[in-house]
């Protein structure tokens, strides 16, 4: 066995590895934007797998090259409403004897014991050498320990310079040479991530509204986990949220863009319906859908007292859907985006709109995100996004939001042949559910933004049947 292979086995199997990193991770993890367990103490860590993508050298001076250690770590925390007691996170740790000044912002800490004693550990994605190594692994399908690398038919060129995309939130992304973007899922779940599954299905249907996956990697440790997806980088494309805010600031109409976005959404929904099953939501499924909305409302009201006075009015939206199902009404369901808003869209320089980030709402369990849903869920998310944009501008421009909402639904109806406004109870229920989610999110992460979704809560709770 070679020295490198021997070192890899020793480190990956070392029972002292995680205990030696634990104190550093205990301080570093809660500060990361993608860490979902904020506000709850970390009680323990457990190691799912450890793989040396680039073996850590056991000897050599301070200029010795870095190592890249891939970890899947379970984080144990006290149980709270709507929060799991254990989450699994993907960590890509760079290891160096001495950290260069340019990498100082990525430092996690200095290890004092265990197999990495005396080394500096840092977020390896910020090291261009290690980031380039990830692309090299994706270029050539195969296995490395419990990691499995897959690739589509198109070859991936080498030598593309990497850079971290700083705007990422619940995950991390690397851009390679302005040609590809690699999304690294930080919080991982058993099963295929929809951000791999759905773009692959859309590519098979020939839908050009979503960049097709070029390569991906997964874990086979205990259960399958999607870890990352490489897709074409839409160079020069502009974020829909920023475009909307600029239109507001300039006093420009965004209606034509909203209509085009409606058509793009309808094209994606049509392709997903052709590629994957489309079961009908009958009484039992609709009851469970509405019950889930009620549970989320109750959990949010428990966490955000400002929501409590509105609970009866908001619940009426969910009860209206249940009442219709008991009268024999059913609705079409299919796979959807799951977290659609302006920030999940990109407009190219030619005016062509694309949809991105099909992971769904990260706070929801993966089986729920992979289940068929009414298309109204995506439509409601975009309608809420227009309202968010308008409320983010001073003064509040209610007419701008109303025109965008109407134009978006018009565009959707033109492309799909179905007007989402024809199912008002279902659309209202999903818009209410989305606003409740927004209230909980803002209360936890951006309290200054809480008045934005609360304005929608006030409106939705006041609607009479």
From TrEMBL:
It holds the Pfam family Mak_N_cap. Residues 28-127 form the Maltokinase N-terminal cap domain. Gene3D superfamilies: 3.90.1200.10. Pathway: Glycan biosynthesis; glycogen biosynthesis. SUPFAM superfamilies: Protein kinase-like (PK-like) (SSF56112). It comes from the Bacteria. The keyword Membrane does not apply. It catalyses: D-maltose + ATP = alpha-maltose 1-phosphate + ADP + H(+). Signal peptide: none annotated. Keywords: ATP-binding, Carbohydrate metabolism, Glycogen biosynthesis, Glycogen metabolism, Kinase, Nucleotide-binding, Transferase. InterPro entries: Kinase-like_dom_sf (IPR011009), Mak_N_cap (IPR040999). GO terms for molecular function: ATP binding; kinase activity. Its EC number is 2.7.1.175. The keyword Transferase applies. One of its GO terms (biological process) is glycogen biosynthetic process. Belongs to the aminoglycoside phosphotransferase family. Monomer. This is Maltokinase. It comes from Streptomyces brevispora.
